[in-house]
Amino acid sequence: MIAEALFFSAILFTIGVVGVLTRRNALIIFMCVELMLNAVNLSFVALSKMHGAALGQVFVVFVMTVAAAEAAVGLAIVIAVYRHFGTVELQNINLLRG
Question: Within 13 Å and on the Cβ side, how many CA atoms surround 36?
Fold first, then answer.
């Protein structure tokens, strides 16, 4: 049971990394980062169950808090960029241009 959860967590994390490295849309990149954080949460819970300690589950609460804050701030930035540039495609956005 625990080995399957860790394997599934590794697959989810790999999908998230591939999505972050290959996509150009800011919203999809944020979704892939959230997928990576959820994969880490799954591995924390599985390892916590394996070792019989609740420390991994405490880390999950902290990771979920950071993920919620990241999602709120990230979506606010994406909305601001969309209002200014009219797109969320990262190759079309150059913030350093005067």
Answer: 17
pTM summary value:
0.84
CB atoms within 10 A of CB 4: 9
Please, what's the b/e burial string for 30-54 (b: 16 or more CB within 10 A of its CB; e: otherwise)?
bbbbbbbbbbbbbbbbbbbeeeeee
Tell me the per-residue pLDDT of 59-89, one tens digit each, with 9 for 90 and over: 999 999 999 998 899 899 889 888 988 888 8
List the end-to-end C-alpha distance of the chain, in Å, as a whole number: 55
Name the nearest CA neighbour of 44 among 71, 63, 17, 20.
Answer: 63
Q: What is the DSSP letter of 52?
A: T
Please, what are the domains in the chain?
A: 2-92 (1.10.287.3510)
Q: How far apart are CA 31 and CA 46, in angstroms?
A: 23
Residue of 85, 83, 80, 87 lying closest to 97 (CA atoms): 85
